[in-house]
Amino acid sequence: MFLIKKINYFLLVLKYLIKNFQYDFKRGTNTQMWGMPSFISSQESDSLIYMGTLEEEIIESTKKLEIFLGEKIFSKSRLIDLGSGKGRVLITWRDMYPNKKSIIGIEYNNKLNKIAIRNFRKLDYKNIRLISADASLVNIHDSSEDYTVFFMYNPFGCKTIINFFKKNISKNSALIYFNPVHHETIKSLGFYQVLEKKDLRSGSNYKIYINHLRNQ
């Protein structure tokens, strides 16, 4: 049984690597972690290693949230990727919703931002906004009644999560959280878990939260 699990895990990792290559090959982009330091941090936060989420998992999780919220609400939402790295989530969202006006990435690492900008230019994607700053210090909250959908692949620890969401959470927010190791912290900020996917590869696990319940 142990050997079977090891083999299955190896096959999942191999699938991850192959799909990463295919994603960039068909677009001429660079969204993988190759050539980056194994650990990237900042003085202000507890940021972690950059990882790219698989396209199919970005689509799957986003569509699940869209179905849960309803197309009318989701169509008015702004999409924000925390720790946007080389821009894969932003590119995938742009492919999914070419007419959406508010697709935003937050990434403090300038090297990653420069790569993301080159990727957007290759694809001629102009309706993506990048905020080059530490998430601990960013304040993008506004008084809009429209929805805000946040996405993150465990990009940092509890300190940054708390600092960011205390400034930016609104009454109409949702969160897609891959590799959700800080689940309790997310709950403490007022989010309710509504959906979950579990997988043998931890990077494919995700939880979806909203910060209100429909019957309240």
Q: State the low-pLDDT regions, or none.
A: 35-44
- Largest sheet, described in full? 7 strands, mixed
Our Rg estimate from Cα atoms comes to 17 Å
Work out the number of β strands.
7
In DSSP terms, counting alpha (H) and pi (I) runs of 4 or more, how many helices?
7
What this model shows, in words?
With 216 residues, this protein is of the alpha/beta class. It is built from seven helices and seven strands; from the N terminus they run αααβαβαββαβαββ. The protein has helices at 2-27, 55-69, 71-75, 88-96, 110-123, 158-168, 183-188, and strands spanning 78-82, 103-106, 128-131, 148-153, 173-178, 192-197, 206-210. It has a seven-stranded mixed beta sheet. β1 (78-82), α4 and β2 form a beta-alpha-beta unit. The longest helix is centred in the first third of the chain and has 26 residues, at 2-27. The radius of gyration is 17 Å and the shape is globular.
